Amino acid sequence: MLNPDGVYLGNYRCSLLGFDLNRHWANPSPWAHPTLHGVKELIIDMYNNPKINLEFYIDIHAHSTMMNGFMYGNIFEDEERFQRQAVFPKLLCQNAEDFSYSSTSFNRDAVKAGTGRRFLGGLLNDTSYCYTLEVSFYSYILAGAAPAVPYTEEAYMKLGRNVARTFLDYYRLNSLVEGPLAPTPKTRKDNVPPYKCTAQRGPGNSHAGGKPEKRSLKDSSVFTR
């Protein structure tokens, strides 16, 4: 929670001083943006520590107009890096019925340059992946179902568990987790099968349905350990 004073006053976007904190990552002030300043220094220290591999950065936000969960990612000139970045949200879409890959967008709009995702995406090397996970304030729509399902605390918690499950899937695909996951997709305790994800572009999204991966995760040298 990087905006405790603003949230305490009922502001979900602005801090006590009226700053949209997710626009000041490039040069946060220790006085005006103390939480960003502290976290940025921590991340840079971790990144410069040879004993630490900083592989993922994900900030989590609620969205006031769109439905479902979805992600924002970055655009890179390196086509392979861009396609590797798309793997995690595709896996999350298979695990979470309320996550929409068609609403997921990869961009580098100037207005978003001060966000954590954009700033750290330019700072960290190509073995690190930076995302924003957005989740609707309101509801989600299941594939093939017209009525919207209101989000509850339980549904938000379930999405969080599915994000954790996706990390396990991701690292297993990269041969960093030995053996099959328990339970496997066909025998999960909740008896929910993997969800079919569509890769079509959503309205206003760029590069949401990129080309399929040319190489397997194992061959892409995503990690250096």
Automatic annotation (TrEMBL):
GO molecular function: metallocarboxypeptidase activity; zinc ion binding
Gene3D superfamilies (UniProt xref): Zn peptidases (3.40.630.10)
Location of region: Disordered: 182-225
Cofactor(s) of this protein: Zn(2+)
Coiled coil: none
Top-level taxon of the source organism: Eukaryota
GO biological process entries: proteolysis
Residues at the catalytic site: 134
Ranges of residues in domain Peptidase M14: 1-171
Family according to the record: Belongs to the peptidase M14 family.
Descriptive protein name: Peptidase M14 domain-containing protein
Organism: Zonotrichia albicollis (White-throated sparrow)
